[in-house]
Q: What sequence folds into this?
């Protein structure tokens, strides 16, 4: 059953509910004495239950209960009969009598109306006051994501929506934390992902700090991912976006509990066409603007040229095989990455691939495609979303690049804070410098149109009792994934 209590929903979930159904229920009931056998809040509990049942069936959310009642003024004669010594000073009477050990909370009808009206007015106004912000990151104006044209597009969208608009200049921090690190990583023989560094340091670092300083409660971004609160643990969880092809949880893996507590991801439940439709409906001129691209500070896509302009030495060296034989000359270690086949310029009589790079002797090892597969990896700079390192190995699924499908594995936390990931099946071209992201999820895929016959002898459980034995039904289970491991069916069924 879905959660309908407002106080248990996160802001993004409230907005999603409002999109589905705009009804809100306000339970109202007094706290009053009903004798020793009944709860003090009987009236309010009945209102709460009715509101929850209605919301669960028809949609909407249930607001926190307003514990108050109303009663007309009673004549002094009635009050005297009930034992009140100074009835002229009393305005209301519910179940309150002098002998009761607990008193009720009532208001005069006119005051009751004011309280309820003001309460509802606040509820109506509970939608977010939103303003827009953009980070100026790249030091030049030909960046793919923060140019002057991008800023103007964003400013016009904010104006259309009646929002204030800020531009925060973070070029120095972007240079230090993203661009310089990008160059240093390539210089060390690794292949970095600058989007991950940008998210950690800028979008959910600098931007969040500025927002909180200015008095804002949340930042909302257009990442295709979701955040929710695990009511059992009290921890925030980072979830994949509903549209798997656009899912961006991979580049958000370094988010902390503090950041997640102030983060809204409103597009995580939608696909890209739906978001564009909403933008058109809102009259935004950039509704059909092209998607952003990786490496925004390399607009021409020539990252090698960028590295050269940044002063990184590109020293030619040898391509070698495992026997040490020289197969050709390379243009510099940063020009290549693990798994690369094209552009090598090597005549080996067969397809060869980049297996690894050796900075010590400036060589690049080439080999067959089969040699690219590895069963395990070691990871550093590990971030557990919960903020707590598991005490035991974790069964899960992992992927080592953004576009990769998650692969079943076991993750072993190490004493030094690192992580060893052992895959059920070897993975291709695990590349130093890239991120490995772990996923824990249970999935059952059902072929709804496929008939099958129920046979009790096929049951996996000990009990073979069933009223459906021998019946032909529809909805065969095609594949079951538990904690990242296929426990029934085949991975091919997942697609």
A:
């Amino acid at each position: 059953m879905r959660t309908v209590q407002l106080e248990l929903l996160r802001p993004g979930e409230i907005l999603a509910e409002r999109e589905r159904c705009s009804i809100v229920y306000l339970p109202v009931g007094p706290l009053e004495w009903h004798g020793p056998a009944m709860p003090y809040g009987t009236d309010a509990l009945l209102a709460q239950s009715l509101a929850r049942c209605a919301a669960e069936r028809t949609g909407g959310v249930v607001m926190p209960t307003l514990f108050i009642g109303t009663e007309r003024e009673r004549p002094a004669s009635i009050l005297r009969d009930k034992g009140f010594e100074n009835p002229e000073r009393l305005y209301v009477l519910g179940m309150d009598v002098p002998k009761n050990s607990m008193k009720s909370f009532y208001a005069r009808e006119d005051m009751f109306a004011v309280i309820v009206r003001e309460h509802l007015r606040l509820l109506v106004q509970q939608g977010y006051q939103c303003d827009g912000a953009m980070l100026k990151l790249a030091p030049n104006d030909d960046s793919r994501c923060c140019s002057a044209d991008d800023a103007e597009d964003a400013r016009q969208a904010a104006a259309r929506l009646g929002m204030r608009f800020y531009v925060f200049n973070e070029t120095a921090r972007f240079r230090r934390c993203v661009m310089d690190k990008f160059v240093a990583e390539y210089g060390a023989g690794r292949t970095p992902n600058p989007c991950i560094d940008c998210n950690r340091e800028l979008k959910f670092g600098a931007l969040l700090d500025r927002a909180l300083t200015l008095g804002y409660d949340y930042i909302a971004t257009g990442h295709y991912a979701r955040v929710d609160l695990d009511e059992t643990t009290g921890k925030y969880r980072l979830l994949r976006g509903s549209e798997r092809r656009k899912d961006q949880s991979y580049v958000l893996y370094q988010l902390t509990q503090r950041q997640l507590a102030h983060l809204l991801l409103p597009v995580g439940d939608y696909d890209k066409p739906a978001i564009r439709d909403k933008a058109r409906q809102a009259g935004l001129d950039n509704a059909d603007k092209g998607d952003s691209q990786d490496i925004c500070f390399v607009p021409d896509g020539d990252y090698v040229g960028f590295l050269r302009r940044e002063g990184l030495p590109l020293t030619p060296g040898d391509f070698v095989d495992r026997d040490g034989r020289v197969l050709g000359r390379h243009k510099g270690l940063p020009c290549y990455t693990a798994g690369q086949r094209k552009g090598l310029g090597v005549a080996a009589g067969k397809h060869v691939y980049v297996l690894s790079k050796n900075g010590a002797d400036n060589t690049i090892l080439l080999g067959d495609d089969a040699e690219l597969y590895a069963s395990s990896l070691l990871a550093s700079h590990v971030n557990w979303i919960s903020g707590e390192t598991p005490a035991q190995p974790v069964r899960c699924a992992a992927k080592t690049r953004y576009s990769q499908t998650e692969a079943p594995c076991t993750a072993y936390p190490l004493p030094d804070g690192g992580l060893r990931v052992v895959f059920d099946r070897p993975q291709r071209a695990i590349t130093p410098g890239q991120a490995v992201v772990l996923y824990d999820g249970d999935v059952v895929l059902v072929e709804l149109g496929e008939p099958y016959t129920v046979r009790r002898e096929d049951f996996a459980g000990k009990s073979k009792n069933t009223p459906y034995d021998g019946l032909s039904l529809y909805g065969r289970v095609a594949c079951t994934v538990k904690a990242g491991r296929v426990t029934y069916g085949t991975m091919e069924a997942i697609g």
About this structure: The chain has five domains: 6-124, 132-281, 313-367, 372-439, 443-493. The chain is about 25% helix and 25% strand.
